[in-house]
Write a structure and sequence with these properties.
The protein is an alpha/beta fold and about 150 residues long. It has a single domain, classed as Rossmann fold, CATH 3.40.50.2300. A five-stranded parallel beta sheet has the order 2-1-3-4-5, sandwiched between helices. The termini are far apart. Strand 1, helix 1 and strand 2 form a beta-alpha-beta unit. Helices cover about 30% and strands about 15% of the residues.
Length: about 150
C-alpha cells in the first residue's frame, strides 16, 4: 500500500532499487554473501586484489534482489549459516532462475546437507589464499578487462 505524501492525495512514489555495479564488460563477477561485515569485507578484499569483480550482500534475501538486477554472475560465494535465509535455501531459490550457477559454500560447521549441483564446500577457518585458490579452481582466473 502506498502512503500519500503529506498534504497530497497522490500516493508516494516507490523508490527504484539502486543500481548494482556489475563491473566492466567481461569481468569475472563473484556475488559474495555473508552476514558478518568483517568477514565479508576480508573475503571481498582478497578476491578484488586478485582481479575478481565482487558484489557484496549481507544475507540471502539481499543477494536474491541483487542477482535479479545483474546481467551476469560467474560464481556465488556464500556462508551457510545466516539469519533470514540459510545459504542452501538462498542457493535453491537462485537456481530456479540460474540452474547452472556455481556456489562455494563457506562454513565453520560440518557440511552434511546436500548442497545441490555445482556446489563446492570450503571449511572455516582458512587462509586468504585458500579462498582465492578455491575460486580459481571453480571459475578460473579473473578475466582481463579493459585492455
Amino acid at each position: 500500500m502506498k502512503l500519500p505524501i503529506f498534504g497530497s492525495s497522490k500516493p508516494a512514489p516507490v523508490a527504484a532499487a539502486p543500481p548494482v555495479d556489475s563491473g566492466p564488460p567481461g569481468a569475472t563477477v563473484v556475488l559474495l554473501v555473508d552476514d558478518e561485515p568483517a568477514v565479508r569485507n576480508l573475503f571481498a578484499l582478497a578476491l578484488r586484489r586478485e582481479g575478481y569483480h565482487v558484489i557484496e550482500a549481507s544475507n540471502g534475501v539481499e543477494a536474491l534482489n541483487i542477482a535479479a538486477r545483474l546481467d551476469h554472475i560467474d560464481l556465488v560465494v556464500t556462508d551457510v549459516v545466516m539469519p533470514m535465509m540459510k545459504g542452501p535455501e538462498f542457493a535453491a531459490k537462485l537456481r530456479e532462475r540460474l540452474p547452472d550457477m556455481k556456489f562455494i559454500f563457506v562454513s565453520g560447521y560440518l557440511l552434511t546437507d546436500d548442497l545441490g549441483p555445482n556446489a563446492y564446500p570450503l571449511a572455516k577457518p582458512f587462509m586468504r589464499q585458500d579462498l582465492v585458490k578455491k575460486v580459481y579452481d571453480v571459475v578460473g582466473p579473473p578475466a582481463v578487462v579493459g585492455t
